[in-house]
Design goal:
Elements lengths: L1 E5 L7 E4 L9 E10 L2 H8 L12 E2 L3 E9 L11 E5 L14 E5 L3 E3 L6 H5 L2 H14 L6 E5 L4 H12 L3 E5 L5 H7 L3 E3 L6 H8 L4 E6 L13 E9 L6 H6 L3 E4 L6 H13 L6 E6 L3 H10 L5 E5 L3
Parallel strand pairs: 9-10, 9-12, 10-11, 12-13, 13-14, 15-16
Antiparallel strand pairs: 1-2, 1-4, 3-5, 3-7, 3-16, 5-6, 6-8
The chain binds NADP nicotinamide-adenine-dinucleotide phosphate.
The site of NADP nicotinamide-adenine-dinucleotide phosphate has 30 residues, from helix 1, helix 3 and helix 4.
């Protein structure tokens, strides 16, 4: 099968011909129709996590996929061959299997039926970023009338988080470059702050001198990079990059959550239903054929991804 893989540590990803994976107990073999990229895929491609989790090569990239069930392993009874599904390869060592391939084996726990109203490309863009956004939004638990700042709102996770917060009745301030502001307003942001032209903290303080209730941060790796002085007493922080340091926050009368997304079927199936119902938009800004899949990774590596990038297959 054709796949986007890293042949050996330190080498660039390439389209290769690899043996198709075999289904095992508790897994689902999927003929992939679309595979969604995440920032994580770039991290795995360059091996930044290889010291904490063993990688085996050739390493197929991609964790999210949508497609048609080819076979199911022992103990799998919620989907069957021929079903249209979507799902995620959970981050379990060793890291080797991926979804940017004509066939992928996914753990049954992270495979859900694809609603017929949701196409393959849309479904493939949902699992990891949708689950991360939901985890972050649940972490801050926004209430109607509150104001939430989303830093890094333009990417995959941010594009979902903005919508999920707005749907709970809170006001969203999103960071984005000026040329992306209209897209974020269409997703539900009340105000867009241009992080490229000045201090986010200064701009938010000018707009909300009495403070804001919560921050979801998708770009910072440490609490001291967060504009915590914008928060009211009792304010909440959620980070997808481990920046919600409990001690730092507690010293300021704040609380926080470091999100570890778990795109299991219990999480992703309701998200897909929201998409089918029209209450959640999946913002796929780029689709690429497999032959050009590496371009999607390069966009993620540059930090300039907007919405979601999906690789499509015509098999
Ligand atoms: N812990 C977990 O379970 C989990 C799950 C999913 C993701 N993550 C992590 O969460 C982060 C976000 O994921 P993603 O999929 O949304 O990434 P992404 O699609 O690559 O999006 C990154 C976004 O950040 C924006 N950005 C870059 N620098 C910025 C800055 N200084 N201030 C404000 N915005 C900035 C970019 O904006 P422009 O478009 O203007 O360039 C881009 O829209 C990644 O680091 C990822 O690894 C963690």
């Amino acid at each position: 099968m054709r796949a986007l893989s890293v042949p050996a540590p330190g080498q660039p990803p390439e389209i290769s011909d690899l043996p198709a994976p075999s289904v095992a107990d508790g897994t689902v073999l999927v003929k992939v129709r679309a595979a969604g990229f995440n920032a994580l895929d770039n991290a795995l491609a360059v091996g930044v996590m290889s010291e904490v989790m063993p990688h085996q090569y050739p390493l197929v990239l991609g964790r999210d996929a949508a497609g048609v069930v080819e076979a199911v392993g022992e103990g799998v009874d919620h989907v069957k061959p021929g079903d249209e599904v979507f799902g995620h390869i959970l981050l379990v060592p060793p890291i080797q299997a991926g979804t940017v391939a004509e066939y992928a084996v996914l753990p049954a726990a992270a495979v859900a039926a694809k609603p017929s109203a949701v196409d393959f490309v849309t479904a493939a863009a949902l699992p990891l970023a949708g689950a991360a956004a939901l985890g972050a939004v649940d972490g801050i638990d926004p209430q109607p009338g509150q104001t939430v700042l989303v830093i890094g709102a333009g990417g995959g996770v941010g594009s979902y988080a903005v919508q999920l917060i707005a749907a709970r009745g809170a006001t969203v301030i999103a960071t984005a470059a000026a040329d992306d502001a209209d897209r974020l307003k269409a997703l539900g942001a009340a105000t867009v702050v241009d992080y490229t032209t000045g201090s986010v903290a200064d701009q938010v303080r000018a707009a909300r001198p009495d403070g804001i209730d919560a921050i979801i941060d998708l770009v910072s790796y440490a609490a001291d990079s967060l504009p915590l002085d914008l928060l009211v007493k009792g304010g909440k922080v959620a980070s997808t990059l481990g920046a919600a340091d409990e001690q730092t926050l507690a010293a300021l009368g704040l609380t926080g959550t470091n999100v570890m997304a778990a795109p299991t079927r219990e999480v992703i199936a309701p998200l897909a239903q929201q998409v089918a119902d029209g209450t959640l938009t999946v913002d796929v800004t780029t689709t690429l054929p497999l032959a050009r899949a590496a371009e999607g990774l390069a966009t993620l590596a540059s930090g300039a991804a907007r919405g979601k990038i999906v690789v499509t297959f015509d098999n």
